[in-house]
Design goal:
By secondary structure, the chain is mostly helical. The chain has two domains: 89 residues, no CATH class; 56 residues, no CATH class. Helices cover 49% and strands 9% of the residues. Helix 1 runs antiparallel to helix 2, helix 1 runs parallel beside helix 4 and helix 4 crosses helix 5. The protein is globular and about 65 Å long. The C terminus is likely disordered.
Amino acid sequence: MRITKKKTPFHSDLQINNHTLEEAFEFSDLGLITSSKLSWNAHVDKITSKVNKILGLVKRTCKGMKDITTLRTLFCALVRSQLEYCTVVWSPQTARNINKLEKIQRRATTFILKTDDDHDTRRKQLNLLSLEDRRFLFDVLFLYKVLNGYISIYIYPHIFNFILILMVTTPGEGMNLDSRRTSLQLPLSKAVSLIGSRTCGMYYH
């Protein structure tokens, strides 16, 4: 498989033991579907199809249940967990995929509360973040773990300019360069503050 966004990519046949390998345009690895054009549409389509079936099963099985706490727990454990698997890798940036994922949570909150309130009101009643905000929080926490050495990924050459901006704009509070570890120390409070205007103090579950 060739990974490129060029309209006219370079093509050459690959052979093993005089056998020409068939070109693939998508492949699945550890549950993630990667396309040759680095589009996550196929992956989003796959997991939303799977999760819609799970949600449908929950709705049929728990049709008469009125315990909101139990229904919320079932949603988080069986449905939302599937939608958030490895999101730091494939977190969608297109409205098409963002809305397709969020639509599932809208359906779930309607089923759990059985009210005609708008989606934001239902989320607040259930103490739920939007899926988009949760993915953003996961990204920030992942960055925090990388910068503080909890995950072994060497990314400093790629974010050097970003680091300089933080050190200039937040003197004494931002990242402190530790020459002994050649690692950047980023306080968790500072990492969370990178979320900006997004409200996440009320929702962590």
